[in-house]
Amino acid sequence: MTAAPKPTRGGESLALFLAHALQLESEAVERYRELTDAMDAHNQPEVAKLFRDMSGYAVMQRDEIAAMAAERGRLPKLHPWEFDWGGEAESPEAADWDAAHYLMTPAHALQAAVACERKANRYYAGVAATTPEAEVARLAQEFAQEEAGHAALLEKWLGRYPGPGEGWDDDPDPPNVSD
Q1: Which has the higher per-residue pLDDT, 83 or 88?
Q2: Contact yes or no for 140/128 (Cβ under 8 A)
Q3: Of 179, 178, 110, 177, nearest in space to 150 by CA
Q4: Are 10 and 17 in contact (CB under 8 A)?
Q5: From CA 119, how far away is CA 94, in angstroms rounded?
Q6: 129 or 86, greater pLDDT
Q7: What dihedral do alpha carbons 83, 36, 58, 54 form, nearest 10°?
Q8: Under a CB-based contact definition with an 8 Å cutoff, are residues 119 and 88 in contact?
Q9: Rounded to the nearest 10 degrees, how much is the dihedral formed by the CA atoms of 93, 94, 98, 102?
Q10: How far apart are CA 76 and CA 138, in angstroms?
């Protein structure tokens, strides 16, 4: 029996860092598309457009990372359990859908997006601070700044959508649930 490969924070080499960054940005694309769909379903076209735009930014960043990787050779193929997100079980950009609710408001969706962007910022900043590789540190710092910018934009939008009042999740016609 062979031991499982040791997870990495992605700072051990440029290839591992790019593999982590590619996965992280792919998660961001998926999350923003899901949030777009949720806001479309909740008839919140302004917030849906914001999330659609954010998804577009994540696609561009993902594609830039893929191009960097292509220039440098193949990336290692990592299984989901081989990623190390700095103590987190999932990618920083993976949405925490445990807190999702079918009556969620734009404020809830924006809060979820801000939380992911902050976690991504912390991940990249952590890699930048701990990697022995100069190129990885430079890229990680650049990516951390981009994530901080995304969080700031979303926080600005959050100011436009106050949190829901008490009883926001009361539903006079709840969905049918059988135990």
Answers
A1: 83
A2: yes
A3: 110
A4: yes
A5: 10
A6: 129
A7: -130
A8: yes
A9: 90
A10: 20
DSSP symbols for 63-96: HHHHHHHHHH-PPP---GGGB-BTTBSS-TTS--
DSSP 8: B
- What amino acid is encoded at 10 in this protein? G
pLDDT in tens, 119-169: 999 999 999 999 999 999 999 999 999 999 999 999 999 999 877 767 555
DSSP letter at 97 equals G
Dihedral sign from CA coordinates of 84, 90, 92, 93? positive
Residue with tokens 């220039």: 71
Give the CB-side neighbour count of residue 104, counting CA atoms within 13 A. Answer: 21
The runs of H, that is alpha helices, within 44-165 are: 45-72, 106-130, 134-158
